[in-house]
Amino acid sequence: MSYAIIGFGNIGQALAKAFARNGIEVSVATTRDPQSFASAAAAIGPQIIPKKLAEAVKADIVFLAVHSESHADVAKVLPTWKGKTIIDVTNAYGVSPEELGGQGFHPPPPVA
Description:
This protein has one domain: Rossmann fold. Helix content is 29%, strand content 17%. Strands 3-2-1-4-5 form a five-stranded parallel beta sheet. The protein has five helices and five strands. The chain is globular. Residues 3-91 form the Pyrroline-5-carboxylate reductase catalytic N-terminal domain.
């Protein structure tokens, strides 16, 4: 099983710390070059692996820690998300389920 965190702000880094505490390797990515946040990832632990977005989203389980406006950009990276487990850890307060479903994921993910 492979894991990735997309987004490396407060939420992404908190998730990365939880993975590191448990000795679980996880890829982290943003739309920036991985070298731009490599030192922050290394400070958390050796289990935190900075990658390019296109590489990170190949993980089996992907945690989205980005603003909902960025979902479409992330969704465009792979031609299909079929077979992936996507966990959106952000707060979409004020965004309707219909809007979330239309952020570029095909088919749109179920909204709980």
